[in-house]
Design goal:
Family: Belongs to the methylglyoxal synthase family.
Low-confidence stretches: none
Largest sheet: 5 strands, parallel
Structural class: alpha/beta
GO molecular function: methylglyoxal synthase activity
Strand order of the largest sheet: 3-2-1-4-5
Oligomer: single chain
Distance between the termini: 6 Å
EC number: 4.2.3.3
Keywords: Lyase
Radius of gyration: 13 Å
Helix content: 40-55%
Pfam family, one: MGS
Length: about 130
Amino acid sequence: MTLTIALVAHDRMKPALAEWAARHRRELAPHNLVCTATTGGVLRERNPDLAVATVKSGPLGGDQQIGGMIAEGRVQALIFFPDPLAPQAHDVDVKALLRIALVYDVPCAFNPATADLLVAGGLLAR
């Protein structure tokens, strides 16, 4: 089964997400990947072989767009690496994204260790 997986990261965490995606490119490749704009750019640069669709940047509504996709049943997993040590100007949008992921019981990972467990648990297996 092909999934749509949202990949999002705050600025300082974008390199970590890009590296995580590189380690799991084989598992990610068969799926539809959607990212906020800036995160998608970093992922594409590090992983040119992965097809990545983008929505707007997080502060410009991208978090809300991904939340809408979750509510519509169009995103089946969220991998979001937030920066726990930096304040975010769009914190309300981030909280709304997390809330909608919880409401719709979407599998989520918020750091590389948990994202690795989603892969090891077979979420991305086809």
